[in-house]
């Protein structure tokens, strides 16, 4: 994990959120999501308060609202599932806009949309203010199993390599006059996918042998160790602790 690797979600900046150690931000987002999930769905106002908290974090990080909203589009499949729930769920029915909707389905749809959107927004803010390499170092600092961190590291490093290999294969097909236009061409695409798998597998074997020849024993050396001061931990804990106060209030209020 010695070399950097930029990713499309990261937005370079020098805000107080950017400068926080990665493991502090990861722990804060994880605790925030747990608090959001634990909030009763009937406490509608609480989810509005969580949205305000995330908006405050985005403002402190100087992340434009449009930037976050565009990246929330990733949850569209979950939105589509939530929209169907009032129609397919059972239980007491209510009339709305001339349609008969399930009351429990409406609450379930709201629960999925509110909690899912807040969780995705928190993740987007984390990715927007933390480089991939720093995220991996943060996970390692939080004592995540070393094998999982290494797998994630290799996936990130060689994702671009495989994508570039796919691009070259596509160009090679096009240079030979091939263009997929229907089911009859699926065989060629399947053969290309098989060839890509074999090439990726062989590349992985070569990389592993090269690592072993250089002394790899199952763990990656830590070149840059990240530490956090007590002040930085307190600063990062402000988000989940405030959210926890909102959650407890939501449970206590009728």
Automatic annotation (TrEMBL):
Segments forming a coiled coil: none
Compartments (UniProt record): Cell membrane
Membrane topology term: Multi-pass membrane protein
Keyword list, A-Z: Cell membrane, Membrane, Transmembrane, Transmembrane helix
Bilayer-spanning residue ranges: 43-60, 72-89, 109-130, 233-253
InterPro entries named among the record's database cross-references: ABC/ECF_trnsptr_transmembrane, ECF_CbiQ, ECF_transporter_component
A Pfam family recorded for this sequence: CbiQ
UniProt KW Cell membrane keyword: yes
NCBIfam families reported for this sequence: ECF_T_CbiQ
Name of the protein: Cobalt ECF transporter T component CbiQ
Species whose genome carries this gene: Streptomyces javensis
Gene this chain is encoded by: cbiQ
